[in-house]
């Protein structure tokens, strides 16, 4: 595909401007106030897929946010690639920490992105990465070199657990039939060392509520004589890790897949600088489970983290009070073989069992999902590897990620197909954070690499 590079450089402005327009629509799925923006974004994706040359595009209604489906079937005997992505984004808050408004995208240079990066909510996760696929398809249809069949399924609830997508997939197995699912919703090591994501962690997300006395109390009159739910909750949470930062929930590690020394040695070969890592986060030291490296702690090991904690008086000044209730949101990242529903049950019974009689504890389950590991001895992996090698000039390294895309395991169960995770973001792109951005280099490299995957995947399947 000799003209692919020149096509991209000739159309660079337009490729960027179209993404910028999409990023202006605040499609936040967590907040129902943004429902009109969700619908507007679905329509924008519909239009983009039509322009890209899909022969059929539809907005599929679900009990929640719509799913945009598109396809171009050229020959039933050729392989079919199903592209999955999401058009919803995380909330923008804390909004005051953004250097430019989250839904007014701007391109600025950074140390890591000397060619500039697009700053805006969803630029990397996942509008920018999803849009690379739309533009890659457009290139292939315009130049008559789409080598196989393609289907697109772009959802609007990924950031809130993909409930409607599960519903949709179960009801549309035939429509979604494919040979491989192609996803760009992860990252890579760096712009000079690409990687292919070979693992995602599972997730169990719970909310806990600790109730003490039936009302808020004067902390002088009652303090010391009754259980303070905030004191109790923090003590209970602290007990969930031991001095080695192992999780103390009985049975939590029972099914954890332990990697062999050889696999760990292989992992350790990936380029990584602990000094640069600490510097980028402004921390004097890292922290985590004894016996594991930083890269192991955030990929092959399970974790338990408090995501939010509240209760009592947090306004200005001081108020002497013992609150009646205290709350926390807790997530557990899981690794292969740990079942999220089983882990949720283990958490619940353990958390209830460690509560003193003086309080009552309620554990509510939020969403969750299974982890995923992709094999590397497959045609899809080889094709992806060849595509990256050609566009980056460096062979990509397989790497397990710490993040979660729970729907990937469901795809395998329901559609019986594997996913290939071709991410182009960087960990430093600040997804879910203020000042999220996506490198212009990364965006354009993605558009350049994707058609090569189509080409090699189709050739290797012959
Ligand atoms: N795209 C991310 C997941 C991701 C990011 C995986 C980077 C690997 C590398 C996705 O949008 C996401 O944020 N997933 C959530 C889970 C979901 C159930 C809310 C997550 O990982 O917290
Ligand atoms: Mn995402
Ligand atoms: Mn996300």
Written overview of the protein:
The chain is an alpha+beta fold and 462 residues long. The chain folds into two domains: 4-200 and 371-460, Zn peptidases (Aminopeptidase); 202-256 and 302-369, Alpha-Beta Plaits (2-Layer Sandwich), CATH 3.30.70. The protein contains 13 helices and 18 strands. It has helices spanning 2-10, 12-23, 35-51, 127-142, 163-171, 229-238, 261-267, 274-281, 294-297, 340-353, 379-392, 407-415, 440-460; strands spanning 56-60, 67-72, 80-86, 106-108, 117-119, 149-155, 180-183, 195-200, 202-211, 217-218, 303-311, 321-322, 325-334, 360-369, 372-373, 397-400, 419-421, 437-439. The chain has a six-stranded mixed sheet with strand order 1-2-6-3-7-17, with helices on both faces. A four-stranded antiparallel sheet has the order 11-13-9-14. The protein has a three-stranded antiparallel sheet with strand order 4-5-18. Helix 4 packs across helix 13 and helix 11 packs across helix 13. It is globular and about 80 Å long.
